[in-house]
Amino acid sequence: MTRATTQKPQVALVQMTCSTDKQANVDKALDRIQAAAKQGAEIVCLQELFSTPYPCQSEDHAQFDLAEPIPGPTSEALSAAAKREQVVIVSSLFERRSAGLYHNTAVVFDVDGSTAGVYRKMHIPDDPLYYEKFYFTPGDLGFRAIETSKGKIGVCICWDQWFPEAARLTALHGAQILFYPTAIGWLPNEKSEYGPSQHNAWETMMRSHAIANGVFVCAPNRVGHEGELEFWGASFIVDPNGNVVVRASHEREEIVQAECDLARIDVVRTHWPFLRDRRIDAYGGLLKRFLDDESR
Amino acid sequence: MTRATTQKPQVALVQMTCSTDKQANVDKALDRIQAAAKQGAEIVCLQELFSTPYPCQSEDHAQFDLAEPIPGPTSEALSAAAKREQVVIVSSLFERRSAGLYHNTAVVFDVDGSTAGVYRKMHIPDDPLYYEKFYFTPGDLGFRAIETSKGKIGVCICWDQWFPEAARLTALHGAQILFYPTAIGWLPNEKSEYGPSQHNAWETMMRSHAIANGVFVCAPNRVGHEGELEFWGASFIVDPNGNVVVRASHEREEIVQAECDLARIDVVRTHWPFLRDRRIDAYGGLLKRFLDDESR
């Protein structure tokens, strides 16, 4: 970003339920993209792995059949939709890269249908009902910013949202808006005791990425019950001061939309000049797993 | 931290006003330390540069006279108080290291009055009414954890709180509780429009450090009017899930106190296993100022 920008893209996030009918999910997403475009959206971001139910609730080899190569039928449908609706689309796909090699991958399409960029999820979770390490090889493309006709954007995916390193690196590459396609929900036996705290921590982390980096942050999340999981929706857009501009409900399918005035980034970053003052001479330990030895 | 801990230190934060009478400020702090100890505190943390008015509202060479060597009269008074009250004290001092060489320095005293560790503020702000770059040489001790008889603690100072790198590095050194002695406030002409957002961003950042690192975070802040600044108080303690356990008012002198059950750290970090999944192979860019060249 060598010059100030005057772009103010309208950004829409699609929060939806998924059935076991993949074509129906894709069709629904295409409908929502069209609806968002009709209400003025210029960038539309879909939730994580939007074309199927969340496939990682068990370790089941049959689930690999849900994956597709990129390009493949779903990416081509999205490319066509981007061109047809004249919107940038940020999508999340279960990528079959080769036999036995799968990724959790984001593809960004520009308004002409071209592929503006690809990101492969770098941080892979593995928790009860989120057995992603069984399915996804960690990304090998690093963190990146993707130039589009509507602004320079970054995509991180779900679990990446808990790592300040991911947001920082994506912002340092010049991303003005960070997207976090997400599939996160409550476990039924935890929701009453821990549910509000979990949801709040999730939103707090991404608000902190907006603040620390002076960028917009947008997180579309899955909604509805699938198996044991209750996806908590609450998709949101945050401004570079960390204020939530718009937030969806916990229960319903929704499209949330807001203008992201990219000129705000320079204002915020000169008033909160964190990038000016990073101590890059003293950050070497961030490349270590732990620093216990050095503390002794 | 090679074994689980059963320590549950009571932590107290002293939020107070300061006058131009340095001895009176020190005496007040010693009184508050005693009061906190009487109500069971085992670790007491003072606000940033507690012994004087915030000295950086202008660039004034006379303010350097407020600094002291370490050890010096104020540090010796704190050492004696730690021993007398049998508490760990986390203090923040204007350090005169040599002629023309000053730091914004935290000193931690253990319950026997010994110096457990020292930290020099690494990130130095420079904003209207916070002209710290004029006064303080950036710290040269790096980020560290300090072993005390009440737990392994880290200290960062005020502006450091906006940098996820500082919290991460301090936690990777093994700190279980991060302290942020702070002096932050509102400018009168900004408070009504931006005040709530600024305060919220400040708390959000530190809550995110607790979440990302699975540690307790404690931030004592100055309160009251000094010159043009209205220090906003609101000192707080956050648990490793990012929940605010206790928060002081915006207007009054207070001591806030909470138990920090250090066994919670292992529970939280195994349920939210972020340290397990950091992509240290892909974080090299964090040591760069910006990554614009690599994006082209």
Describe the structure in your own words.
Two copies of one chain form a homodimer. Chain A is α/β, with parallel strands linked by helices and 296 residues long. Chain A has a single domain (10-295), classed as Carbon-nitrogen hydrolase (Nitrilase/N-carbamoyl-D-aminoacid amidohydrolase), CATH 3.60.110.10. The first copy, chain A, is 28% helix and 25% strand. Chain A contains eight helices and 15 strands. The first copy, chain A, has helices spanning 22-38, 73-85, 132-135, 164-172, 191-213, 263-271, 274-277, 292-295; strands at residues 10-15, 43-46, 88-98, 101-109, 115-120, 145-148, 151-155, 177-179, 185-186, 216-219, 223-226, 229-232, 236-238, 244-247, 254-259. In chain A, the strands form three sheets. A six-stranded mixed β-sheet of chain A has the order 5-4-3-2-1-15. A six-stranded mixed β-sheet of chain A has the order 6-7-8-10-13-14, with helices on one face. A three-stranded antiparallel β-sheet of chain A has the order 9-12-11. In chain A, strand 3 and strand 4 (101-109) form a beta hairpin. In chain A, helix 1 (22-38) packs parallel to helix 2 and helix 4 (164-172) runs parallel beside helix 5. The first copy, chain A, is globular and about 50 Å long.
Task: Give the arrangement of secondary structure elements.
The structure is a homodimer of 296-residue chains.
Chain A: E1 10-15, H1 22-38, E2 43-46, H2 73-85, E3 88-98, E4 101-109, E5 115-120, H3 132-135, E6 145-148, E7 151-155, H4 164-172, E8 177-179, E9 185-186, H5 191-213, E10 216-219, E11 223-226, E12 229-232, E13 236-238, E14 244-247, E15 254-259, H6 263-271, H7 274-277, H8 292-295
Parallel strand pairs in A: 1-2, 2-3, 7-8, 8-10
Antiparallel strand pairs in A: 1-15, 3-4, 4-5, 6-7, 9-12, 10-13, 11-12, 13-14
Helix pairs in contact in A: 1-2, 4-5
